[in-house]
Design brief:
This protein is an all-alpha fold and 388 residues long. The protein is built from 15 helices and no strands. The mean pLDDT is 85.
Length: 388
């Protein structure tokens, strides 16, 4: 290789890495849109499937079980076929599962649909996180917060779209159909730009392992963070309709406030991490988020509640990117094991939320969220891998 050709090769490599980063961000955007599409229309889906708080808890439990039982297979699939191909398969299932959600006439069928959706979404999540870790290792720079910020972009766009569709009284069926077609098109466009990875077919590598040693603390944080994020995502629209008395068309505004601020914080997370460190950002952020939810509960006012969810979005935004970044450095199996504990938290928390809402109203369920946030603030200082 000549000296004159070196800069050209470097520019080519940097351009390719930039394309890979953009494509991986777009993959997270797709995941964010699917989450927000479901979350913003939960009141409508509740009415279609005739759900009570308890049966909604069961439905969400089904989604959580799907995320857990698929995990050993996810790691095996990624090792066998590579993260890129795995992401596309799981992503396609995640997107197409949207339509049956608005066609389910009862909670039993909706539970089965969400079981499939949860399994596919968890596989997609792990695969694109593995691609993000690959980009970080190739460039030697932190990108995970930026990558995860595009989940926030998708969340925000999906929330705005859901608010608009609800305000215009467009049915959830047509809303979900449009989103499904648009996301399938986007996935087809980005596929060739995702990082190419060589499948590792070695049977000597462990496909899955329970978190141990320093990974335990990352798993604990992930468990609590998933409990918080899933609970806010699944119950915030109902908080605004049933607790604050907002109309269904206006109900998604709380999710918009939460997702929008999460997006903004994730945009700047990679710049904050070198200055303050992951442990401090997670701990302080969790305290801010707890205060925001408390404000929403005690205010009983839509405007103040929106401000509270702004604080909550900012506070929880960096937890998952920084935990996944730390776990990803330990390998794909470590990443999957930590994520599995997180998915377990998302699964276990929803029947708890259903029980608390049924017996102590929505304020009782959101107090549970506050307690999870306060525990994250304490636990983050035990996670030594976050200090690396």
């Amino acid at each position: 290789m000549t000296t004159a050709s070196l800069p050209h090769n470097q520019r080519y490599q940097e351009a390719a890495q930039k394309q890979q980063l953009i494509a991986t961000c777009a993959a997270f955007f797709i995941l964010g849109v699917t989450f927000a599409t479901w979350a913003t229309r939960i009141p409508a889906i509740r009415d279609i499937a005739l759900l009570t708080p308890v049966t909604l808890g069961y439905v969400l439990l089904g989604k959580g079980i799907g995320t857990i039982v698929i995990m050993p297979a996810v790691v095996a699939v990624i090792h066998r076929f590579g993260a890129k191909k795995s992401a596309m398969v799981f992503g396609f299932i995640t997107i197409t599962a949207l339509m049956p959600m608005v066609l389910s006439p009862n909670w039993e069928i909706l539970t089965a649909v969400l079981f499939i959706s949860g399994a596919a979404a968890s596989g997609y999540n792990i695969a694109i996180n593995a691609l993000g870790s690959k980009i970080e290792m190739a460039t030697g720079r932190s990108h995970m917060s930026t990558i995860h910020s595009w989940f926030g972009v998708g969340n925000f766009v999906g929330a705005i779209l859901g608010t608009g569709m609800g305000s215009l009284h467009i049915s959830a069926l047509y809303h979900f159909l449009g989103v499904t077609l648009g996301l399938i098109l986007l996935m087809a466009i980005i596929y060739k730009y995702l990082p190419d990875d060589v499948p590792d077919k070695s049977i000597s590598k462990p496909m899955f392992k329970i978190p141990h040693g320093a990974l335990i603390w990352l798993g604990a944080i992930c468990f609590l963070a998933a409990s918080v994020e899933d609970s806010i995502t699944n119950w915030v629209a109902l908080f605004f309709t049933d607790y604050l008395g907002a109309t269904q068309g206006f109900a998604p505004i709380g999710y918009v406030a939460y997702a929008g601020t999460m997006l903004g914080m994730r945009w700047i997370g990679d710049r904050l991490k070198p200055r303050f460190g992951a442990q401090k950002l997670i701990s302080v952020g969790s305290l801010v988020a707890a205060f925001g939810i408390l404000l929403a509960i005690v205010s009983s006012n839509v405007l103040l509640a929106c401000i509270g969810f702004v604080a909550a979005g900012a506070g929880v935004a960096l937890t998952f990117p920084m935990v996944f970044s730390a776990a990803g450095k330990e390998g794909a199996a470590a990443l999957a094991s930590v994520a599995t504990i997180g998915f377990l938290g998302g699964m276990a928390s929803q029947p708890i939320m259903g029980f608390l809402v049924e017996n102590f109203k929505l304020s009782g369920g959101f107090v549970f969220i506050i307690l999870c946030m306060l525990t994250i603030a304490i636990t983050s200082w035990k996670a030594k891998l976050l200090a690396k």
